[in-house]
User: Fold this.
Amino acid sequence: MKHYYQTQRHAKSMFTLLFALWATCTLTAQTPSTSNILYVNKNVVGGTQTGNSWANAIPELADALKWARTQHDANNSWLQNDSLQIYVAKGTYKPLYNAGDGNYSVSGNRDNAFVMVKNVQLYGNFDPENGITDLSHQRYYSLYYETTLSGDFNDDDYMTETQTEPTFHNNGENAHHVIISTRDVGNALIDGFNIISGNADDSESYIAVNNTSVNRGFGAGIINFSSSPSITNVYISRNEAVSGGGIMSFYNSSNIENIEVMQNKSVYGGGIYNYGGSPSITNVKIRSNSSVQGGGIYNNVNSSPSISDTEIAYNYAADFGGGICNITSSPTIIDTEIKENESAYGGGIYNNTSSPGISNTVLYGNEATYGGGIYNNGSSPSIINVHIDYNSASSQGGGIFNGSNSAPNISATSITNNSADNGGGICNNSSSPTILNSIIAHNFVNYNGGGLMNLSNSAPSIINSNVIYNNATYDGGGMVNYNTSAPSFKNSIIYGNAPDQAKNFDTSAPAYEASLIQNSKPNGIWNTNLGTNSGNNIDANPLFKNPNSRNFKLQENSPVINTGDNSLYTGDILNDTDLLGSSRLSDNSIDMGAIEYQNVTPIPNISNILYVDKNVVGGTQAGDSWANAIPELSDALKWARTRHDADNNWLQNDSLQIYVAQGMYVPEYHAEDGQYTYNGNRNNAFVMVKNVQLYGGFDPANNITDLTHLRYLHSTAGSVLSGEFQGDGYINNNNYNILISSGDVGNALIDGFYITGGSASGYAQVTVNNNNVNNSNGGGIYTINASPSIVNTEISYNEALNNGGGIYTNNSSSNILNTTIENNYADAFGGGIYNETSSLNIRDVKISNNRGRQQGGGIYNETSSLNIVNSDISRNTATGNGGGIFNNTSSPVILNSVIKSNSVSANGGGIYNQANSVPEIINTRIVSNTSNRGGGIFNTTSSSNIINTTISRNYARGGSNAGSGIYNYESSPTIKNSIIYGNTTSEIINSTNSSPNFSHSIVYASTLNGVWDTNLGIDNGNNLDADPLFINSLDFSLRDGSPAIDAGDNTAYTNAGGDLNNDTDLAGNTRLFGSTIDIGAFEHHGIKTYWTGNINTDWHTAGNWTSGLPSTTTNAVIDQVTNQPLVAATNSAEAYSIVINPGASLSVLGELSFQTSLTNHGDLLFLSNANATGQLTELPEGA
Assistant:
């Protein structure tokens, strides 16, 4: 496991003067501004250096703080409501003065430090040269800060690292402490700095600061002693100490927020050491620190920090507590992620005579010899609503190790997927935890005790919990007991463990009451080898909803419903919640296990909306609000389908809407008519219901709650519909179809989902709404005699044994809008989409990287008519014909689209047309496709209409007669206002009764000695054999002087249904610029000037542009170069249009205006008080 991120930091200036020179330097007296601000700027030129403005900035922070300390010691302090603020510009600053009392006007060499002064606040990361001058400006626009406080006097430190910890070199002369804060400092604050390279290596001596003895071995980055400054927006790194590498705090209650503590090192507390204090640590990243004890945090002697919204990750401790080590301390840990830390004892957390409160927290991927997640030694932490997952111990206790009479209270907690030699979930040694409403599942051991191992008289009490699906190589898949251990199980479930449920040694005697224990009653008689039957136990299948996908909710006919004993429950049965946050008591009698069956009838709200949230906690689950959300989409759709089948339909003008929050949802019910209340395993599917509309991508936890909000779209971070019901990562045993739409569904819609993992690999069919659905087609979506709308959705990584890996449509007419269909596979036809007798409207859709093993990598059309508009069909493949599109007796309209980089082994890399197909292709670019013949288009007994289309850079492998641009067999397409140029080998090949018609087009090599080559087809006039002068080999828009400009035929365009007054070209510009349309897919709109950055980053330097400074009639294009453009705060920039290409950036501090559009494919940074006027747009990829 790698514990350290390798980072490279560059000092902003060199420390070149001797300390003696600083000590004897005489400075002008400091004078704060009228707002009580001192300005510090390492790079100031001129000025008075009094500090009352940026122009008069003090060059060194050390001098500003020395003056402030002098004022304080002379009793000229600042009040808490009128603090002194010190603004520090970017640069590297060294502590120049001795921190010791009475010596702080001279250098103390390694005793130099920045000393905090009462009611003095330090703010860094200003950049006055670029207009970042006060707190209203955006100071944090880069990953780390550019104002650095460094203890490296010689600027020669460097770091090497091993697998577990760093080693710092050349730091022997470094300051012991970068920052010191002692005693009462009022509302002192440090904000916006890097704090690096302290070396507190002398724990045998002290320095007196504000009458406080400060140990030279403690707190290399920051040391607080009986002092509580606020620490925010700070990066603390590469500090080394005996104790507290990054921060050391004694009796401290600082507010520490939004900081990162990374790659620090010490013996105790690599990142942070707290001694007898209670700081608040919020939104902090503590990463890649190392120590002997407490790699991330070390809490000692009654420390009780509050830790929330924090990440503690990749830290290492040789002995105790890779993430956190608690010694006689009780921190509160809330909403925190503790992951991938490592130690001998307690990879995540080590507790010694400590009782921390841990809630709403994740311990993930931590490693130890004992206690991969948590190690408790004589400790009793409270562990509530915690996920302890994928931790490991090379010896005992993959999830938790409890030793020396530890008695933690574990409630509503998941202990899953942990591993160890013994005791995969929990190992108890002379310990007796209480485990309530929790689950111990899918843990694994090399030897014994997959779920639980109990040693030395341990007696855990396990109530309403599940010990399920754990595995041991030898004994006790669920539990193994040694040395007279006596666990008790009440209202619990032990099921599905291997090789056995429980194994007892050494007169151990577990007791079971009102619980389900698998194989406990063979032939109806209690198996005494398991332990004592205390009554009311059952031996049955608990009927979890979908255990393969880790859904352990109960089916409605589960035998554990209402079969627990209320009197055995040790909590508050009327007010407690179960593992998922629902009511613990749903009926009169409690259920067995951790999850209570919720028999709730959905109730849409007054706006006819049902809410679904996989992560809902509590509530009624009636679905009338986000707070009462239904946890599973399957249950909402089952209810809707039940109402539909009972003729309680919704009207088209009063549709039911189902809002679905982010999370992964798998279909839980059979798709078959009459079977949809039962689990059908691979036949499960989400079935669309008439006039029911599904909307996904909501995030109620972050106030993304309705359709006016910006939802998570096209993303696995949004609402995912997955066929991965087995949970094993193998697609070939997933659900056959993720979503089925069959029959009249009215205005049914799916909007805002990520659909993945469907595997239509069956050989049978099911009946859905009286239509036969073949489970070898349509892995992602299957529609038959139905026309649902598919909007704002991504359909990826689905497959089909026959047709339609992503989508299969039969006699349907869906609208597919703003959707991505990629990385799907069909073993026959239509890797992305298969259409049979269907009429789809496809607009703003990306169809890419799909594969049809036989025909139609992107789309296969059989007797179908599609409208494809503003779409990108790219990088699809097929072994047979039609890499992008295969048309069989089909006539799609393809408008303003891109068909590029598709490939096939046979013919028609971009498009393959056969059997009287007549597609109409307008304002489209067909480029860089590859095939044997017909690299761009292959026509056989078909005749395309091609208007204002660019066909270029396509390749046919079949030689000079293969037709890299177009190959025609018994076909006579019509080609108008189009460009066929730059295709490899031959542009057009005609075979057997083929005679295409050309007019107002550029066709390369179309003349011989100035005479039209009749082998190409018929010259209907105004054709050109010329270089169209594309911008470059990847940009097919026209350069100034192109022969294609104003050479088209307006009538040809309008006769094809075009509107010259309102249509746009492929780039989104007006289709007509001037009086005559251009040839090709792009209309020329004036001169372009390209950014080179040859001189500097200033937008207004003409020499940085190829054709001079942009103006309101010039198009500005910004490419990725070394110097990227900046519009300064005092300037305004203008252009007709602006394009920022991938990898390029534009930073704006002043004014920016553009007449038409700004198209951003890179980074656009508006800093400070920048303003812009124009329309921000985004083109389809490759346009």
Summary: The chain is about 5% helix and 35% strand. Residues 365-599 form one domain. Residues 195 and 236 are 5 Å apart (CA to CA).
